[in-house]
Amino acid sequence: MSVRALWIISHEKGENVSIRFSRRFPTVEHRAKCLAGSLYVPVPEESTVLQLLLTELGLADADKPYVVLRDDCLHHQRSPALELHVEGKGVLWPVLAISEGPLILACLPLVEGPAEPRPPLASLLSVSQGLTLLAGLQTFLLGSGSKPDSEGLASRLAMLPSVLLQVCPLGTPLDVPQLGAPAASLVSTPAGTQKQPAWKTGLHRGRAVVNVALTEMVRSMQYGNQSRQDLWDVYGTVTCKCEVEGVLPNVMVSLTLPPNGSPLQDILVHPCVTSLDSSILTASSVDDCDGSAFSGPYKFPFSPPLEPFRLCSYTSQVPVPPILGSYQLKEEENQLRVSVTLKLHESVRNSFEYCEAHLPFYNRDQMGGVDVKVSSGQLEVSKEKNLLVWVLGQKFPKSREVTMDGKISFSGSIPGPTDPLCTDLTAYIKLYFKVPDITLSGCCVDQHSVQVYSSAKPRITTSRELQSKEYFIWNATGAAPVSSGHMML
C-alpha cells in the first residue's frame, strides 16, 4: 500500500481555513498513472483539493441552501472513502479524511489495480492502512487532548517531514508515530549542518550494532567423462545491517584472503560505498589471472542505510569443487542399476548444517521396488515423485567418502513426473548443502578489522558460510548437457 498525497487542514472556527501541511510522492503518482492508463486523474492544486474536500465534507458554502456536489440526491457519499469531482479531469477516489478538533487529515491511497471497474472497498487493504496512518498522525499532532496549544501544534507540524521519513518513506506507510509519545522523543533533528539524504529514511536511536555476513554460493556441473570438462564457479556476497547513530555515519569493512588465495574478481559494490581503490574494480573473470592481480585486503568504506543491504558481490576461481561425485546409471532387465560415490575435498571442513543428495527419475512409470544401500546417512524414498533423497547429515565419515549402490524397478501403473531434458539414461544428482564458518575462496571478514566512526562503541558480529547453488552430478553413462545454461543461473 502506498499514498499518492497527504494533507493536514486547519478549519477552526473564527480562523481562515488553510492547508497547514501537504506532501506528494512523485514515485507513487507515477505508479498510479501507469495503473490507470487513460483513466488516470492527476491530483489537482492544493487550493482545488481544499475546496473540493470542504464541499464533500459539508464544511463549505454553509450559507447556501443547496450545493449540487453536496446535496444532489444522485450523489452518495461513500464513507470512509470520499469522491472528489475534479472539473474536466474526472473523479479522485478513494480520498480518506478524518476530522478531530481543529484539524482535518486526509490522504489519497494508491489503488493497486485497474481504475474500472471500481473495486469494492472491502477488498482494498490501502483503505484500512490509510486510515491507520491518519489516526496515528492525528494522535501525534493533537497529543492526548483534542485541542493542543498553538505552539505545540506548530512544533509538531514542523516535525512532520522528519516523522514521515520514518513512518512513510517514499509514500509507503511502515509504521505510525507511537501513541501518546511526546513529539520531541519521536524525531531528533540531525546535529550540525549535515543534510539527511533522500535515500535514508530515518535515524537510528539506541545501541549501536553492526552485523556483517559473508555467503559464498558454489555451482557445479560434473559429468564423470574425460571428454567433457567439469564446470564450477563461486559467487560471494557480503550483506550488512548497520544500526549506528548519526546522519551519515562512516563504517569500513575489510575482506581478507589467505596467502595462497585466488584474487576476487567481478566485484560490484553498493552505491553507499564512498570510495574504492581502482585496482579492486579492474579484476574480471575474463582476464588472465596473474601474480600482479590485486589480492587484498579489500577495503570498503561506506555510509550505511538503515535497512539490511548487499555491500558487495564477487566471483572467485577455485581449483576444485567442495564435493566430487561419480554417478553411474545402467539399464538391467527392466531395472536401473544405481552406483554413486561422493567425496568431500580435504580443504572443506567436515561439519555441515545440512547435506542432501536428490536423485530424481523422470519419464518413467512410478517406482516399484527399491533395493538400494548407502554407506552413510539415511535414504528416503518418495515413490509418488520417483525421487530418492540421500540425507547425509552433518558429517561425512572419516574417509570423507560415501557410496550408494542398488537397483530400482518401475512397476507402478501410474506415470511418474516428466521432464523434457531427462530421458532414458540422462539423469542427475542434485546436491544441497550448507557449511557454516567457511568459504571456498578463503575470503573472510575479520571482526577486528570492521571500523565504525561513531560516538558510541558498537557491538560487531561477523559470519560466513558456504552454500550449494545449482550443484549437479550427471550420469556418466548417459547423455548430458555440455553447457551449464539449462540448469545454472
Briefly say what this structure is.
With 489 residues, the chain is of the alpha+beta class. It has helices spanning 26-36, 46-56, 68-71, 125-142, 150-167, 183-186, 278-282, and strands spanning 3-10, 18-24, 81-86, 90-100, 103-109, 209-222, 231-243, 250-256, 265-269, 298-302, 309-316, 323-332, 335-344, 354-360, 370-374, 378-382, 387-391, 401-409, 428-436, 444-445, 451-453, 459-474. The chain is 15% helix and 35% strand.
Please tell me about this protein's structure:
The protein has helices at 26-36, 46-56, 68-71, 125-142, 150-167, 183-186, 278-282; strands at 3-10, 18-24, 81-86, 90-100, 103-109, 209-222, 231-243, 250-256, 265-269, 298-302, 309-316, 323-332, 335-344, 354-360, 370-374, 378-382, 387-391, 401-409, 428-436, 444-445, 451-453, 459-474. By secondary structure, the chain is α+β, with helices and mostly antiparallel strands. The strands form four sheets. Strands 9-11-7-6-22-19-14-17-16 form a nine-stranded mixed sheet. The model is unreliable at 179-192 and 484-489 (pLDDT under 50).
Task: Provide the fold topology.
Layout: E1 3-10, E2 18-24, H1 26-36, H2 46-56, H3 68-71, E3 81-86, E4 90-100, E5 103-109, H4 125-142, H5 150-167, H6 183-186, E6 209-222, E7 231-243, E8 250-256, E9 265-269, H7 278-282, E10 298-302, E11 309-316, E12 323-332, E13 335-344, E14 354-360, E15 370-374, E16 378-382, E17 387-391, E18 401-409, E19 428-436, E20 444-445, E21 451-453, E22 459-474
Parallel strand pairs: 6-22
Antiparallel strand pairs: 1-2, 1-5, 3-4, 4-5, 6-7, 7-11, 8-10, 8-20, 8-21, 9-11, 12-13, 13-18, 14-17, 14-19, 15-18, 16-17, 19-22
